[in-house]
Amino acid sequence: MSQFQQKVELICFEALTEDIVRLTFNAPKIAAMARPGQFVMVQTSPGKDPLLRRPFSIHQVIRDGHLQILFKVLGKGTELLAQVRVGEQLSLLGPLGNGFTPGSPETACLVGGGMGIAPLLFLATRFLSKSSAAEVSPKMPMVILGARNRAELEPLVDDFRKVGVDVLAATDDGSFGHHGLVTDVLTKSNLPPGFGIYCCGPHPMMAAIARLCQQESRACQVSVETVMACGMGACLGCAVPLKAGGYAHVCSDGPIFEAEKLLWSL
Amino acid sequence: MSQFQQKVELICFEALTEDIVRLTFNAPKIAAMARPGQFVMVQTSPGKDPLLRRPFSIHQVIRDGHLQILFKVLGKGTELLAQVRVGEQLSLLGPLGNGFTPGSPETACLVGGGMGIAPLLFLATRFLSKSSAAEVSPKMPMVILGARNRAELEPLVDDFRKVGVDVLAATDDGSFGHHGLVTDVLTKSNLPPGFGIYCCGPHPMMAAIARLCQQESRACQVSVETVMACGMGACLGCAVPLKAGGYAHVCSDGPIFEAEKLLWSL
Amino acid sequence: MEPLIMATEKADLRVSIGSLALQNPVMTASGTFGYGREFEDFVKLRGLGAVVVKGISLAPRAGNPPPRIVETACGMLNAIGLENTGVDRFISDKMPYLAALGVPVLVNILGDSVEEYRQLAGRLAGIPGIGAIEVNISCPNVKKGGVAFGTDPQMAAAVTAAVKGCSQVPVIVKLSPNVTDITVVARAVEEAGADAVSLINTLIGMAIDLRSRRPRLANVIGGLSGPAIKPVALRMVYQVARAVAIPVIGIGGIATAEDAMEFMLAGATAVQVGTANFVNPGACDEVIAGIAAYVTEQKMGSVRELIGALRVC
Amino acid sequence: MEPLIMATEKADLRVSIGSLALQNPVMTASGTFGYGREFEDFVKLRGLGAVVVKGISLAPRAGNPPPRIVETACGMLNAIGLENTGVDRFISDKMPYLAALGVPVLVNILGDSVEEYRQLAGRLAGIPGIGAIEVNISCPNVKKGGVAFGTDPQMAAAVTAAVKGCSQVPVIVKLSPNVTDITVVARAVEEAGADAVSLINTLIGMAIDLRSRRPRLANVIGGLSGPAIKPVALRMVYQVARAVAIPVIGIGGIATAEDAMEFMLAGATAVQVGTANFVNPGACDEVIAGIAAYVTEQKMGSVRELIGALRVC
Ligand SMILES: Cc1cc2nc3c(=O)[nH]c(=O)nc-3n(C[C@H](O)[C@H](O)[C@H](O)COP(=O)(O)OP(=O)(O)OC[C@H]3O[C@@H](n4cnc5c(N)ncnc54)[C@H](O)[C@@H]3O)c2cc1C
Ligand SMILES: Cc1cc2nc3c(=O)[nH]c(=O)nc-3n(C[C@H](O)[C@H](O)[C@H](O)COP(=O)(O)OP(=O)(O)OC[C@H]3O[C@@H](n4cnc5c(N)ncnc54)[C@H](O)[C@@H]3O)c2cc1C
Ligand SMILES: Cc1cc2nc3c(=O)[nH]c(=O)nc-3n(C[C@H](O)[C@H](O)[C@H](O)COP(=O)(O)O)c2cc1C
Ligand SMILES: Cc1cc2nc3c(=O)[nH]c(=O)nc-3n(C[C@H](O)[C@H](O)[C@H](O)COP(=O)(O)O)c2cc1C
Ligand code: FES
Ligand code: FES
């Protein structure tokens, strides 16, 4: 067994801003198997509406089998999730998807925008961790994070700093770090050629970074979002077009893809 | 305006037993218009499943515009209602239906079984109240209440005693009051001819009491339950067959009917 | 020259169904709004686009035995059995109140035969306040072994022509969704003279109680309505709007302004709010206000810009 | 002599679809269970009544562009576009794993023409592990202008006969609900030799995004599934079970043992669990366990006592 459907208890609820929430679940089985870049499907209601589970990146796995997700309230499902109380149980399905391949290359620049920051904390700690040395590099990653404003970004930047990673920040309104896009910061940072990019964020940001990396022949892994019904390869609903033609399935072939394999619209 | 759709706040939650709950809402507009025997339609979820509101008798109206309902957890809707927390808001529609006609006759015997006890507390206090003298009789009503066991019945009997009404109790298991049915108690009580019956409870109980009253030519008002979609006479879903043929609508012609007008099955 | 400023002052929500002008595109669906009066405490009746009343037959009908309704996932089944007071009592008891509201009253009619429909239309002709006749063709044709008029293009056309022949007001034919190709029926009633079509009526469904091993409706089968059917309704409105030239009125699971405007994008000129009235008796007010807010916010000259504006590339 | 005692020991859940014996009446619905393996961590695959695989065509198909799915009230729309690996890779890559499970594999097939269905049946004939062919006739017939095979009794019969002619295993025809009278199609395929019918496939629906004014599916229309459609499915199963003599397999919104048993009361010999697998990948296990518990608790000799046992008076 490498995947589980589990009722898990919410053990910590944090509202980082008015509409950004971090939930910590006691989910030992899923946490034990989880790798950075994988995701869980969360049932947002015991009823039939909303019917489908919602996908969320695994934000962090912490000692004692605790698993975190970080999300923004957008619609019905996330609204319901933001109302779950500590002690209540929720059904989680996971870990799902392929996850990042953090070994290639070993020197890394993590680029996250908005809620795309979520999976990068887990990835960053894996880069740092010595215990799982077989799989990951011990080298310190470079991290560039962007969001709309200070309120949204600062608490997340703090989390990276807490685990010992320095962060270059960018905000749309300039209230924290660079005033502008993460892509500006990335361009200005003159990243050495050996560094690979691990990227998650809004589609336009990832498309821009994919283009950049292609120009520089830089390895680039992106985490892709689509609507999902099952999250486990059964419905074929989560198609994304491939450069070579045809489609890949985000939940089973991804959500992490080499940027150059995908057909980027925009 | 005599009916209202209102978002009201839950101000008190009481679990009388494991599955019997009393909710107190701050619902001044509805409370001000409410008469005993009327009901409210309660939205049990902000979502679309369950879709329809659920009808509940007005259990009690207390000073300051507080309105109570008393219910047993049976299915999805009542399960959700039993999870509402103090401070949360719910949409109520009411007061709906005709209500009891407590003046005719003025001497009364109230007979309630199970959750059918709910509307009788409000009715009993109206019989006692001197402030609304125009509408109701000041005479002390006789009250017979039945339920499955002591746990379910005793807290409700206490409520009647608190407002100054004595109660004859009956339980299915004999753990409190008479061992048996309320109909037994009623038969044994040798009710004087002038007393009218005001009755609410499971269908078989009401059918038995209706038969009894017919034999004794005693006035009998019953509170009838059906499935309801609208509660306000619009859907015509809440039909009950009439002795004279055709149907009445429980929400708009009832829920209180003279027992002899109805066609009693069983 | 200043449509934007005008729009922010008061959104232009007017639409027309044939010769019938409506102050806004929001009507009540037949059978879900009683005879209007039931909602006077909850909705600004005078603010509605139109009131569509419960289906009326020639003679009074008692309706089906209970249970008549059952809740289903995001929907409900009903088998009311077309209970109504009959056309004469409708005219004498219900119309005066309705006519005084000053909004068009659409009378939904139903019959067992083409002749009954014709007579109904005749009885209603000339009654003040009636803005249009809505012909419910989902009823069984007793002369044809109980096949619903609405499932046969020829029968549907025959009913339409009969009603049209006795009506001065626009005739709207209400289509049944329980057909293989709803555009065929839509075109048939258009050719027979219908001034508009409204759709959808309920999907035929059933519910079973495992404990008693009985159908949950005394009538065994009933009509499915509510949010559950919205995707089917939206698809059929889209198909019919592209198949006919007459206005289309969209119905099925509409509960919010967004729902209503999605139907307009699919091609509906107006909409009807049905089951949502039971859940939220103020639903129509909210839908109208929401559309007005959208039209203003989007700086649209008129709500009519939405009709059929779906971008399908 | 001691059926009650036996029942409490182990409930008899066996049912048969023609010559195909199933250990219990619970199958997976095509397109909602991948090729089975995806669920090995979540469901006891060997405990299923049967595994129905994603629809297979002669040549591989890439499927529709995204978005392919959208959630609706208590349901979902899909327009996957019948993406599949094609019959050859299905046989070489998927069948060995499936055959080793020891439960019947039902291969759902689809084509653009009668000839394609015939060839598919031919390719699958004799492959070990295949318990039956399920013929998806909701696909458009390209030779007839894209009208779905399942909406025309004659075309449905032609496909059935063609497949039947090349199959040794039972042939199950999966009916489309998008028809005026599903019993007509059911009888047509029965006469053409179908060993069973399964129903319903998805209802055709649509969803619109008000913000972008575009359809929510790239394909514009899609198939509605899930709890929302259960009342329609139950009604059609009830009608078809009374119209044909062959076994009926019930599909549509089944998520619990109660749902499954309601379909059996309506006349289904077996059921398929579809969309529920997405929400709860352990759904089939729960449905089977729930039926077993009920059969035991009710002291029934066999689950077969439920089939068509609805009490309609
Ligand atoms: C593999 C994967 C990992 C994800 N990880 C995270 C995460 O860690 N944190 C997080 O906040 N979100 C994440 N998402 C997105 C998340 O699943 C959606 O935000 C969520 O499903 C929205 O559900 P809802 O019911 O609140 O919104 P809905 O009611 O479904 O939609 C509300 C509105 O939001 C829009 N919307 C829905 N999904 C998205 C989306 N993916 N992106 C942008 N807009 C959308 C809809 O179009 C609609 O307008 C992830 C998605 C995938 C596929
Ligand atoms: C005018 C009126 C006043 C009412 N007053 C009260 C009240 O004061 N207190 C109270 O507890 N209930 C009262 N009821 C009944 C109450 O409305 C139902 O119990 C409630 O709707 C059940 O909702 P649910 O979603 O929990 O159950 P559902 O999920 O709808 O049903 C669950 C199970 O309960 C059964 N059930 C549903 N309704 C009833 C019913 N009325 N009687 C018996 N079984 C039922 C169903 O058949 C099903 O098996 C009243 C009903 C009416 C019409
Ligand atoms: C309780 C009820 C009664 C109805 N009665 C009628 C009727 O008399 N005539 C008619 O044409 N449609 C009738 N309908 C159908 C509705 O007008 C509408 O077409 C259908 O419910 C779909 O819309 P909705 O999903 O918004 O409810 C009725 C629907 C319900 C729920
Ligand atoms: C994503 C998806 C894909 C489907 N693919 C197929 C298919 O390939 N062949 C087929 O016959 N039915 C297909 N169906 C229909 C289902 O098998 C089933 O008939 C339908 O979903 C109704 O059942 P449900 O409500 O339990 O999902 C598909 C359904 C879904 C949701
Ligand atoms: S979400 Fe179902 S296959 Fe990817
Ligand atoms: S519940 Fe709708 S008319 Fe009574």
Got a strand count of chain A?
Answer: 16
Sheet with the most strands, sense and barrel status of chain C: 8 strands, parallel
Mean pLDDT of chain C: 95
Tally the helices of chain C: what do you get? 9
Please report which band the strand proportion of chain C falls in: under 5%, 5-15%, 15-25%, 25-35%, 35-45% or over 45%: 15-25%
Largest sheet of chain A: 7 strands, antiparallel
**Oligomeric grouping of the chains:** heterotetramer
**Could you please say which CATH topology of the largest domain in chain A applies here?**
Rossmann fold
Fraction of residues of chain C in helices?
Answer: 25-40%
**Total strand count of chain C, please?**
18
The Cα radius of gyration of chain C reads 19 Å
Low-confidence stretches of chain A: none
Strand order of the largest sheet of chain A: 4-3-7-1-2-6-5
Structure description:
The complex is a heterotetramer, with two copies of chain A (266 residues) and two copies of chain C (313 residues). Chain A has two domains: 4-96, Elongation Factor Tu (Ef-tu), domain 3 (Beta Barrel), CATH 2.40.30.10; 105-261, Nucleotide-binding domain of ferredoxin-NADP reductase (FNR) module (Rossmann fold, 3-Layer(aba) Sandwich), CATH 3.40.50.80. Helix content of chain A is 21%, strand content 31%. Chain A contains six helices and 16 strands. Chain A has helices at residues 28-33, 76-81, 118-128, 150-162, 182-188, 203-215; strands spanning 4-15, 20-26, 39-42, 54-57, 60-62, 66-72, 89-96, 108-113, 142-147, 167-171, 178-179, 196-200, 220-223, 239-241, 247-249, 256-258. Chain A has a seven-stranded antiparallel beta sheet with strand order 4-3-7-1-2-6-5. In chain A, strands 11-10-9-8-12-13-16 form a seven-stranded mixed beta sheet, sandwiched between helices. In chain A, strands 14-15 form a two-stranded antiparallel sheet. In chain A, α6 (203-215) links the parallel β12 and β13. The N and C termini of chain A lie far apart (40 Å). In chain C, a hairpin with a 5-residue loop joins β9 (140-141) and β10 (147-148). An eight-stranded parallel beta sheet of chain C has the order 3-18-17-12-11-8-7-4. Chain C has a four-stranded antiparallel beta sheet with strand order 5-6-16-13, with no helix packed on it. The longest helix of chain C is centred in the N-terminal third of the chain and has 15 residues, at 87-101. Chain C is built from nine helices and 18 strands. In chain C, 31% of the residues lie in helices and 20% in strands. Residues 1-8 of chain C have low confidence and may be disordered. Bound molecules: flavin-adenine dinucleotide (2 copies), flavin mononucleotide (2 copies) and FE2/S2 (inorganic) cluster (FES) (2 copies).
